[in-house]
Fold this protein.
Amino acid sequence: MRRVEFTDAIPKSASGKILRRQLVEREYQAATHRRDLTGRPQGVPMSQNGSPLADTRNMYIIHMVFRREFGLLPGLVRSVAHRDEERTKVVTDHITLLSGLLHHHHEAEDAVLWPLLLARAPKEIDPVVHLAEGHHQRVDSLLAEVDVRLAAWADGAASEDGEALSETLDRLAALLFEHMGLEEQLVLPLVERHVFETEWLAMEELAISAIDPQDFALIVGMALYDGSIDIVPEALRDEIVPVAPGVYADYAERVHGTRTPPRVKEVGIGTPYVGVGAATPGRPTT
């Protein structure tokens, strides 16, 4: 395994500057640590499982959020009545939030993960990494299409525009399910062998830095709905964990029509709308 310096390849965007600064600070903190012949840092922070290599468990929780929320989106849009502008605004805001989270999540992977794996993992693995990169490009294209469809639907809340948006969201959910399955089966095992915990944490911090602080408790609540408190940094648990589930429950009631939307195991691509509190005349309820 050879060590890779990749700060010069990090994009010059605002998020890239944050990551570059974090990596420089980490390098300074580790300056006195020795490395053995494999390039493994000596004395650097360990993951929760006691290894200097990455602990990827939080990624599975993040994927739970994306599977649940993106799987519910097509049915959620189709549930909105024709010309119901108030309800359309609630759903469009929700889609905008999720699209932003997904974009920043993938942006962090693009900046950190793929360069490290391409440089360190066996060359036979390159096609897997390139396939995952290609998924990101296709997701970006679909997110751009979602933005266009979303703007059209928001301008008048016409049911035909909502159906066009739903069809794009169907394709996006299908691609995301495929992509997350690929990452879990093939990519994350590589990460656990070739990426250090400090580098993994830098990637997580880059994604988190893009979250609006006002949305932080909501995002944590989304994660805790199907996941564990392991995803919350220990320093924040006393402050965030007691309130985050309630914040998400309030939000889910407004968006999904229920404080207890389906768990991730109950959600597939195009799961029909299941809310009750947001029902309007002519909309099916459960």
User: Anything to note?
Assistant: The chain has two domains: 54-210, 212-261. Residues 54-210 form a domain with the Four Helix Bundle (Hemerythrin (Met), subunit A) fold (CATH 1.20.120.520).
